[in-house]
Design goal:
The complex is a heterodimer. Chain A has helices at about 5-25, 30-35, 45-55, 55-70, 75-100, 105-110, 115-145, 150-200, 205-225, 240-255, 255-260, 270-305, 315-325, 350-355, 360-400, 405-425, 435-460, 465-485, 500-520, 525-530, and strands at about 325-330, 340-345, 540, 545-550. Chain A is mostly helical. Classes of the chains: A mainly alpha, B mainly alpha. Chain A: Its main location: membrane.
């Protein structure tokens, strides 16, 4: 047992103890605690919770590496994942908050007055959240496995037990405050190494201001080496692929059930607007730093690793070669490692940074605790979404409407444990690359939920038949395009499987509009309810007249 | 509950919707439009970073964050102008009771 092992273990155990302590302290006592944290979370803290919920293992471990490898083309992820909050906060969240339900399928079912629409939405929630959580659990398995020096399988199992325990116990209330703590852990862990790297490379502790000079220097190196330049656009895919991916990630963000439900945990529409603003500020701290990480790491690799002789490489390279995530093959046999002979996995950039920059055991341990916080907080939110869809939308609203609060709470807890265990078992042997599965989950959300919610809130003429047809066509087109692009080599304007959401969303919106217009309009009561969403909660629209509510 | 003038309610909806359209257009401009003209925009730079790359890595995100805070603040001000913040409604009720 070396010092690194002990430091990592202590940091991870200490942060886990903190999360469990918070979950126990905020144990859910009523259904509304369990699903929406009694709707009493202040916007700033809700913003942090959204940030932790949102930023997954893929953001924490993979984003910087993706930008480093794709250069400018990787920025589609940065703009897409942040831009989604504009759509969410301007077009959906406050209105959904006013409608006042527990879950997204419940909104769709009640707004469109269709049990079948609610069922499709519940099933889509489960598919999307489940797919997404497999990535989180296998990510946490890799981190725990590498840092505690245990097998990845055991690492994944540790993650499963922990997530099942605290999400089942605390429900949304426990998770909210746990996620606030997890946000703080993950952002501190993310910022410390990049600030140290900025000081080492540019003598300026603010990486956001100083990585420009590193980018200029890399431009010269790129030109000397004659490789495709880092900042030159569309070297990895077409311009339309960039735009389609950006749209898919934006619309998917606005349609992800586990993120939307976080806006149900605040008191008012006003608090929902502020939550969105705070959330993007907290998320922005990480997303603004990822390109700096990418630039610094690429620069260090180009100047300190590439060009040196093979038997004189920095010590940290060996550890990553052993994991199979870094490959240093001397293709031309000259004993010197060229830049083109270096093959690096997206996932190692952030995790290897403390070693690349020689930051010591404490920072490496902190990094591990931060990566775990990112994986666990997102997985926790996803599990709540799955459990709500199963216990509330399917069990309570469709199977047993007479169920007592205790019974529904029990079903919610059991489904969380079951879903976590099943996702954990799948995560032991993930069906594909993690980032790819995550992109598919976004494409599915943008093809099903985004159109249903957008039209549900902003077009009162949209009806049950329209939304059912829209969601099914959106799902079908998205899935068909993913498979056709991935396995059939079929592409339109160079758009590959990760950009499929643009076709799914367009098809779903068109279908919803056409079918709605061909079928009778929704009842006057529902149309009034939709008109009511135009106003804040103090104003109520009823029978063609507008009323100011009494203050309670 | 008191009835209010439908014109006033419509004015509220119109101003909020117009602002949202303005915010979304700005958001669209700094992301999609800049990407579309990325090659042409790379000729000048900010802090040593070519403009299109700067917008992708920092400019767009900062604009998004500012838009969200401006929206939250301006919406609060609109609520106040229309006299529908909870504080204002409490005051009115007290005035009626006196």
């Amino acid at each position: 047992m070396d010092a690194q092992f002990i430091v990592s273990l202590v940091l991870i155990v200490a942060t886990f103890a903190l999360y469990i302590g918070i979950a126990v302290y905020n144990k859910a006592r009523a259904t509304s605690d369990f699903y929406v944290a009694s709707r009493g979370v202040p916007p700033v803290f809700n913003g942090m919770a959204i940030g932790a919920d949102w930023m997954s293992a893929a953001s924490f471990i993979g984003l910087a590496g993706t930008v480093m490898i794709l250069g400018y083309d990787g920025l589609a992820y940065i703009m897409g994942w942040t831009g989604g909050y504009l759509l969410l906060t301007f077009l959906l969240a406050p209105q959904l908050r006013k409608y006042g339900r527990y879950t997204v399928p419940e909104f769709i079912g009640d707004r469109y007055n269709s049990d079948f629409a609610r069922l499709i939405a519940a099933v889509a929630t489960i598919i999307i959240s489940f797919t997404y959580s497999i990535g989180q659990l296998s990510g946490s398995g890799v981190v725990i496995g590498r840092l505690l020096e245990v097998n990845t399988v055991i690492g994944t199992l540790i993650g499963v037990v922990l997530i099942a325990f605290y999400s089942a116990l605390g429900g949304m209330k426990g998770i909210t405050w746990t996620q606030v703590a997890q946000y703080l852990v993950l952002i501190i862990a993310y910022l410390i190494p990049v600030i140290f790297m900025a000081m080492q490379l540019t003598q300026n502790p603010l990486p956001w201001l100083s990585y420009g000079e590193v980018i200029s220097e890399m431009k010269e190196i790129d030109q000397e080496l004659g490789i495709s330049e880092y900042v030159v656009p569309f070297t990895e895919g077409s311009k339309w692929q960039f735009i389609a991916l950006m749209f898919t990630l934006m619309a998917g963000t606005a349609g992800l059930p586990h993120v939307i439900v976080r806006f149900y945990t605040v008191k008012t529409m006003k608090a929902a607007r502020w939550s969105g603003a705070w959330a993007l500020l907290f998320i922005g701290l990480l997303y603004l730093s990822a390109p700096a990480y990418a630039a610094f790491s690429r620069f260090i690799l180009m100047t300190e690793v590439a060009g040196s002789s093979l038997d004189n490489l920095p010590a940290w390279t060996q550890a990553w070669v052993d994991t199979g995530r870094l490959s240093l093959a001397d293709g031309n046999g000259d004993g010197i490692l060229q830049w083109t002979e270096l093959v690096i996995s997206n996932d190692i950039v952030v995790m290897a940074t403390p070693e690349i920059a020689n930051l010591g055991v404490f920072v490496i341990g902190l990094m591990a605790a931060g990566a775990m916080a990112a994986a666990l907080s997102t997985a926790g939110g996803l599990m709540i979404a799955i459990s709500a869809a199963l216990s509330h939308d399917i069990y309570y609203r469709s199977i047993n409407p007479k169920a007592t609060e205790q019974k529904r709470l029990a079903v919610g807890r059991i489904t969380i444990v079951l879903a976590t265990v099943i996702a954990g078992l799948v995560a032991l042997n993930p069906p594909g690359a993690i980032t790819q599965i995550v992109a598919w989950a976004f494409a599915l959300a943008s093809g099903t939920f985004f159109p249903a919610l957008l039209l549900g809130v902003w077009w009162k003429r949209s009806n049950g038949a329209g939304v059912v047809a829209g969601m099914l066509v959106g799902l079908g087109v998205t899935l068909a395009y993913i498979f056709a692009a991935k396995y059939g080599g079929f592409t339109i304007l160079g758009i590959i499987d990760t950009g499929a959401g643009v076709f799914g969303a367009t098809a779903a919106i068109l279908t919803n509009v056409v079918v709605s217009l061909l079928t009778p309009p929704p009842s006057q009561k529902i149309q009034d309810e939709v008109t009511d969403l135009r106003y804040p909660e103090q104003i109520q629209y009823k029978n063609g007249e507008v009323w100011l509510r009494d203050v309670k | 509950m008191r009835k209010i003038d439908p014109d006033k309610a419509n004015a509220y909806y119109r101003i909020r919707t117009t602002l949202i359209c303005v915010y979304l257009s700005i958001g669209f401009l700094v992301s999609f439009v800049v990407v579309f003209f990325a090659r042409a925009l790379s000729s000048f730079s900010i802090m040593g970073i070519p403009f299109h790359y700067y917008m992708g890595s920092q400019g767009a995100i900062l604009t998004f964050i500012i838009l969200l805070f401006v929206n939250a603040k301006v919406s609060d001000m609109i609520d106040k102008r229309f006299g529908i913040t909870p504080e204002q409604m409490n005051e009115k009720d007290q005035a009626v009771n006196q």
